[in-house]
């Protein structure tokens, strides 16, 4: 009922997609020999959606230049803000082929990680730069931590999650995909992320706050541990408060000039834009910190061939599930600490 008010005519199609099998992307493991895996996937007609988007953007930029537009006249720098080390293969729109399970290489590292390809967008938005200190505040089971490591340029990565059992899964992923010498630069902790500023406030260049949410796709399909179950009503009602507290901790953990990406896998504005608005207000009024909400609309242009975006998000971007591109939901918004 709620989403039909928000998404209006789009809701029946989003609902149908949520009720159908989701699509995956194969995040290549750069720490394993990837060339033959890439070739194998290309033979199946899959493409690396990140490099494809960058190629298309470069071509359109050339066309604009040829049409004598100056740099200043162009829309936001399309490719400047994307880490190109990340390679994630997806099948074309409408193609619902499944990927084979990942395989170990000669050293025992798995060749790719299957994930919702839209989960990579918050990582691309974070735009890690060489030697950045990065904090992944709610990291388990570790898909996004793994993607952050695939950039190959983090100076240090702190991966935290309150749940000890889910942190074990994070360790398993690190062991299955990352060589020992790289694992050394990851510190894994199991703290309440809300207390992070008391541990290491103001030290990180980049912070990912991928909060617990109503996990809408899981919630429409699975009875097990469903957040909409009556016995979890209170917990569900408190989610936006928890999300806000985690985002505030993420902001306080960031250096001046540093960036925070907030993400959820929910369609709910209460868990998305409203949390952002409240955090910006609290940062200013209670901590005297000015926050700039970055424009990510170029993501819509860049990745329109792979994902369906909601065009009416007030702040940040939202990937809507669609039967021909059944990824998401994935909301992401980038904040800069001024
Ligand atoms: C959406 S999941 C994170 C998924 C993860 N980023 C990934 O890509 O695999 C949200 C996580 O937040 C954790 N969490 C919940 N409350 C937390 C808190 N107060 N502090 C830190 N982590 C918390 C949950 O245990 C859960 O693993």
At the fourth level of CATH, the homologous superfamily is Vaccinia Virus protein VP39
Distance between the termini: 39 Å
Question: In the CATH classification, which architecture applies?
Answer: 3-Layer(aba) Sandwich
CATH class: Alpha Beta
Bound molecules: S-adenosylmethionine
Name the structural class: alpha/beta
Helical content stands at 25-40%
The overall strand count is: 13
Beta-strand percentage?
15-25%
Low-confidence stretches: 71-75
Shape: globular
Element pattern in H and E: HHEHEHEEHEHEHHEHEHHEHEHEEE
Largest β-sheet summary = 9 strands, mixed
Mean pLDDT: 93
From the alpha-carbon coordinates, what is the Rg to the nearest angstrom?
A: 19 Å
Query: What is the number of independent domains?
Result: 1
CATH topology: Rossmann fold
Count, helices: 13
Tell me about this structure.
The protein is 38% helix and 18% strand. The protein has 338 residues and is an alpha/beta fold. It has one domain (22-337): 3-Layer(aba) Sandwich (Rossmann fold), CATH 3.40.50. Strands 5, 6, 7, 8, 9, 10, 11, 12 and 13 form a nine-stranded mixed sheet that branches. The chain has a four-stranded antiparallel sheet with strand order 2-3-1-4, sandwiched between helices. A hairpin with a 7-residue loop joins strand 11 and strand 12 (317-320). It is globular and about 55 Å long. It starts with a helix and ends with a strand. The relative contact order is 0.15. Residues 71-75 have low confidence and may be disordered. Bound molecules: S-adenosylmethionine. S-adenosylmethionine (SAM) binds at residues 119, 138-144, 161-163, 166, 192-194, 210, 212.
């Amino acid at each position: 009922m709620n989403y039909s008010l928000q998404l209006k005519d789009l809701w029946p199609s989003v609902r149908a997609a949520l009720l159908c099998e989701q699509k995956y992307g194969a995040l290549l493991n750069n720490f394993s020999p990837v060339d033959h895996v890439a070739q194998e996937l290309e033979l199946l007609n899959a493409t690396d959606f990140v490099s494809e988007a960058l190629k298309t953007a470069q071509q359109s930029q050339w066309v604009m230049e040829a049409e004598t537009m100056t740099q200043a006249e162009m829309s936001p720098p399309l490719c400047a803000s994307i880490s190109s080390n990340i390679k994630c293969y997806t099948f074309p729109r409408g193609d619902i082929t499944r990927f084979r399970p990942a395989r170990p290489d000669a050293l025992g590292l798995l060749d790719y990680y299957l994930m919702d390809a839209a989960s990579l967008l918050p990582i691309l938005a974070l735009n890690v730069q060489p030697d950045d200190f990065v904090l992944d505040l709610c990291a388990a089971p570790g898909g996004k931590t793994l993607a952050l490591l695939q950039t190959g340029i983090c100076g240090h990565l702190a991966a935290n999650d309150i749940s000890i059992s889910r942190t074990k899964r994070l360790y398993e992923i690190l062991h299955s995909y990352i060589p020992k010498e790289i694992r050394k630069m990851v510190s894994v902790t199991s703290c309440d992320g809300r207390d992070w500023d008391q541990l290491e406030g103001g030290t990180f260049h980049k912070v990912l706050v991928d909060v617990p949410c109503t996990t809408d796709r899981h919630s429409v399909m699975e009875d097990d541990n469903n957040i909409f179950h009556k016995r979890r009503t209170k917990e569900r009602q408190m989610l936006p408060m928890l999300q806000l507290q985690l985002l505030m901790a993420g902001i306080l953990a960031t250096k001046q000039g540093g960036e925070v990406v907030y993400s959820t896998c929910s369609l709910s504005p209460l868990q998305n834009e409203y949390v952002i608005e409240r955090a910006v207000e609290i940062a200013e009024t209670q901590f005297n910190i000015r926050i700039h909400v970055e424009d990510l609309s170029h993501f819509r242009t860049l990745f329109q061939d792979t994902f369906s975006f909601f065009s009416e998000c007030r702040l940040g971007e939202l990937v809507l599930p669609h039967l021909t591109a059944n990824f998401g939901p994935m909301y992401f918004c980038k904040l800069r600490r001024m």
